[in-house]
Design brief:
CATH architecture of the largest domain: 2-Layer Sandwich
Number of helices: 9
Structural class: alpha+beta
CATH topology of the largest domain: Formiminotransferase-cyclodeaminase, Chain B, domain 1
Largest sheet: 6 strands, mixed
Strand content: 15-25%
Radius of gyration: 18 Å
Shape: globular
Helix content: 25-40%
Distance between the termini: 24 Å
Number of strands: 10
CATH superfamily of the largest domain: Formiminotransferase, N-terminal subdomain
Amino acid sequence: MESVINISEGSDFSCLAELGHAAGTSLLDMHSDKFHNRSVFTLYGTNVYEDSLNLVRKAFQLLDLRNHLGVHPRIGVVDVVPFVPIGNSEIGHAILARDNFAKTIAAEYSVPAFLYGPNRTLPQIRREAFVGLAPDFGPSEPHPKYGSVAVGAREPLVAYNIYLAGSDLAEAKEIAKQVRSPFFRTLGLQVGNEVQVSANLIDPFNHGIHEFYEAVRALTHVSRCELVGLAPLKVIENSPAALWDILDLDLDKALEVRAADKNSDPPS
């Protein structure tokens, strides 16, 4: 099982170090962005459920949504907790982990928890939470300190950012709109002095990083690319190796390679 937890903190290094420690031995990668004010923690292995709980508990201990500023949409201190089946694991295992996790967090912290996947999407929660959509667990209003949390069960996806050569936010938003599809969920965002098209690639094995890059590049000049967290090895290998530097790819950013390296490390 994999869990890719998005937490609304991206710049306080001492806080991030505590969060990383709380994630325990399951932590494979932490990707932080100060402008998004968001960090993506990739957890993988047999202790993912317990380590995810410990990470989220630490986030609730350290963070307060009322003090949060960042360009990325969020509904809570712990914004998204997806469980992802890997290898022989099945989506049913992820759904069971999702439901138990959401129920536990809602009970412990009186925080509303919304479930997504396979029958409800994360964008639907962002649009409809507390309007047309009630939480699946917990109170009917956001917690004043923690907000709410979206807990999911989904297949692997890839989070990916493309920075544009110009700094026109309107252009970034328009390009995000033009390349948006059932396979690419996109936003145009201002990040410091730069603008980016930020995306979740929903079907990365069939509509992957290179296809998304070419779709954006056909419309504008690209400054640089950024893989957020890790990606499945097959997704990386499906992109032309000659473009890996441009696409911000290498084998160390493959989930399977990072997991194998971690398992082969001598005990500390």
